[in-house]
Amino acid sequence: MNAVRDGAPAGAPDGRYGRSADARADRKLKIIGSVLGVLLLLLVGWLGYGYISKQTISAELIKFDLNSSQTEVAVHLEIRKDADATGTCTVRAIAESGAEVGRKDVRIDQVGQTRIDEIYPIRTTAKATSAELLGCAADSR
Hints:
Layout: E1 4-5, E2 8-9, H1 21-54, E3 57-66, E4 72-81, E5 87-94, E6 100-108, E7 115-123, E8 130-138
Antiparallel strand pairs: 1-2, 3-4, 4-7, 5-6, 5-8
């Protein structure tokens, strides 16, 4: 009686009858995994590029100063945008409890500039302890 080992008859030299079924399946799985991995990376790159390319206005909250009268917070924003872009950035003042005590929509109308560095006051209804930039949105073109 002849025994069978990895799809080849017993006593047959290794590699004489090609790869075993397990080796062929492993190779196919590796190829499929590699193709799916590359497709996933391409999808993430495409979505990331689409998100970044749509943002024509972005800003960074550099610092904030709490007014001693406790009715105003001054926020220092650095805004970067396309030269012809206009839009709005929203900032808010926050109390120690976490409640919002002031909010302001800062209008960005400076056409021709790509970088704006200004201080904007936010009136508050109570003492603020922090300020936060919520985000910026460009006007529809």
